[in-house]
Every structure is written in structure tokens, then in C-alpha cells.
Amino acid sequence: MDEEYDVIVLGTGLKECILSGLLSVDGLKVLHMDRNDYYGGESSSLNLIQLWKRLKGEDKPPAQLGSSREYNVDMIPKFMMANGTLVRVLIHTNVTKYLSFKAVDGSYVYNKGKIHKVPATDMEALKSPLMGLFEKRRVRKFFIYVQGYDESNPKTHEGMDLTRVTTKELIAKYGLDDNTIDFIGHALALHRDDSYLNLPALDTVKRMKLYAESMARFQGGSPYIYPLYGLGELPQAFARLSAVYGGTYMLNKPECKVEFDDEGKVVGVTSEGETARCKKVVCDPSYLPDKVRKIGKVARAMAIMSHPIPNTNDSHSVQIILPQKQLGRRSDMYVFCCSYSHNVAPRGKFIAFVTTEAETNNPKAELKPGIDLLGAVDEIFFDTYDRYEPANESSRDNCFISMSYDATTHFESTVIDVLNMYTLITGKVVDLSVDLSAASAAEE
């Protein structure tokens, strides 16, 4: 391998594949390597036999679960906001032509032991059983303010500078109670803890607007979309994009050892006795374990079922957020359910995940509130994985390491990490001001 590359990307997880695609489109010479013989890394989708082997260690799943080939089970299950950053990246790169999406049926929040549809607009707030009559009126006023808010039009600000006013102060103006603040902050604005309350309100207002705009795009029951045949399609789609722009792919390359010069800067990657030279390396934490630090652990249960989750209006695909306060925890819990309607399981079968940040040494017990919502299950698996973040200085060693996937069942935090890495690598910002109507070709 005498060639020198601008960037070598190690691992074919979704984050690495998106970066590989973006960098190739930019005209950089990219080599993409993976020690596995399949795409997706940690974020791959598995058939039933692969899933069984990975989580149960036994070879044969029971016959009543149906054909192994009809399963595409995401290892990191996440939905996309229909108007969100990942959709904008897909349109910006034209990757939509390789994929088909379908709207997700429902978006729910857990409150006082029950699950309720997340109200996203002033009209939905008036109908929601989450609140009493007077609270509904207050929420409606707040939603009308948020929907009408325009950063560039001071007339819509009602005398408040949202870059200075905290979320807590903004909400106090409308007199909303703690229960309401809980579902707005965690199920609408998708904050992962309550620190947002003391931060400028602009971010929360933008997040709420994104949710409502995403809802409006499909006129459906949720703001989310999800690819047919599962998320394993996404890394492959970005890999195709990279290849179209001259990126080179090598799967099944053992070891992939990153080489450094005397100053500690990356000079290449060695596999099977050959070294490919490069200026920069992009990888997931598993390729450079001595340059990352552990920041947490994700606990999850994965269930195969023969029915939709109860109390979700028979939704074939659904997200339920269980805010931390409702469970007496420090972090939220997420329930993700998909089914044969998105071609990820045989007809009549549903796949549900319950995921959260582990806070004790007994993650199985921690997941109980989410598992209790599922009803009867055919099979259930438990799994944990550690979360890492980069501990190196990329400006010194030219190594750009992605963060591990978090427990959320939506893509917003994932894409922010990718775009931040892109800016670190290139010094540029991806222009995502695209016309979202262009995506309609890929929608069902």
C-alpha cells in the first residue's frame, strides 16, 4: 500500500460512515477499513441467528419466531426527526436515493404510571389527558408563543431575550407545573436531564419547534421517521456515497493498528503486515482504547413480541420516553418499538428495546419500569455496553474519535457528534440549509 490518504476511517459504524461520505464528497482521499466483515460496527442490524449468537450464545433460535432472514434488529435503535439534522445530512449528500423511509406511528410520554401521547401543538395540548383544564390553557399559551417565535423577528419575542432568559424563567412566566415541565423538557425538547432549566431558553424553544415542524411534515402520529429494513441500511448508504466519490473500502482487515511518528502524530494504519499512510485517522473508541475515557454504561433489554405495546393505539412503531423524575432516577428511560411494518421482523412480530443509562450494579432491575409497559414477550435479552468519549487532543495527534452511542432512541445527539468531528477535521461547517421538500422522493 504505497498510496497516501488524506484520511483513514476505521470502523463502519454509522458515525464513521457519515463522516467518510462527507469527507469524500469534499474531495478528500479516503480509505475506510473495518476489522469486521460486515457494515455497521456497533450500529449494525442483525438477523435472528446473529442476534441469538451475540446475546444468548446458543446457535438455534426457536422455530416459532419465524425466519431468521426476515429480522433486521438494530443494535443501537434510534428514530430520526423528520425535520432533524440527520435528514438534512441525508438530503445534503443525496443519500436519500439509496433509502426508503416510513413515518413512525406514535410518540408517547410516561406520566404518573401511565403512558400518554406527547402533545406537540396548542390544539393537542387542549385535548391531552396529561393536564387539568386550567393547566391546559396555560400550556396552550406557551405553545402559541413557541410556535410563533421567530429568532429574526423581535416582535415575536414578547420583550424576552431568549439567549439570556433561562428556560426556568421562560416557563415561570406561563406558570406551568412540574408535571408539564417534565414532558415538555424530556419528551418534546428531548433533553436528557434537567440541567437545561438553568440554561438559555433559546435552545429549548428551537427543540420544541423542531418537534412540531417534524410532526407537521407527515401529518402522522409522531415527528419521527425510520428506514425500511432497519438502520443497518444507513451505514451502507453512506459507504456507497463515499465510493461514488472515490472512497476505498476494505472490510475484514484484522488488527488495524494505528501508527505514530516520534512526535505522536498519526502516520498510517497497519493491517496484515502492510501500512497505508495517512494524515488523519477517524475511528470509533474501540480502535484507540488508550485515547478514550469511560463515561458511563448503557443498559438495555430487547424483546421479541407478537403484539404492539399496550396503550399505544395499536402503534406498529413507537417511542415512549420515561422522564427521570417519574422514575426517581438521574437519567431518562427510552422504549423503542418497531415491527414488520418497517420490514425488521416477520409478519405479526414486534421488536421492542428498553434503554437507559445504568445507575446501579443491577441494570436488569433498573429497566423494570420500561419492561412492564411491554406486555407479554416471546423472548427477552439483556445487554450492557460501556460508553466512551475521546480523551486525546486531536490537534496534536490527528486522531478524531467518535463518542459511544448513548441511550436515547432518537438521532439528535449522534448527528451533533458527527458534525462537530467534521468541523474539527476540515475546519468547515456542513451547510445544512437545504430545502426539505426535496426529500419527499424518498418518503412513502
TrEMBL record:
Does Transmembrane helix appear among the keywords?
Answer: no
Q: Which GO terms describe its cellular component?
A: apoplast; cytoplasm
Superkingdom of the source species: Eukaryota
InterPro entries documented for this protein: FAD/NAD-bd_sf, GDP_dissociation_inhibitor, RabGDI
UniProt entry keywords in alphabetical sequence: GTPase activation
| GO MF terms, alphabetically ordered | GTPase activator activity; Rab GDP-dissociation inhibitor activity
Please give the Pfam families that the UniProt record associates with this protein.
Answer: GDI (PF00996)
Among its keywords, does the record have tRNA processing? Answer: no
Record GO biological process: protein transport; small GTPase-mediated signal transduction; vesicle-mediated transport
What's the stated role of this polypeptide? Regulates the GDP/GTP exchange reaction of most RAB proteins by inhibiting the dissociation of GDP from them, and the subsequent binding of GTP.
The UniProt family comment states: Belongs to the Rab GDI family.
Q: In its UniProt entry, what is this protein called?
A: Guanosine nucleotide diphosphate dissociation inhibitor
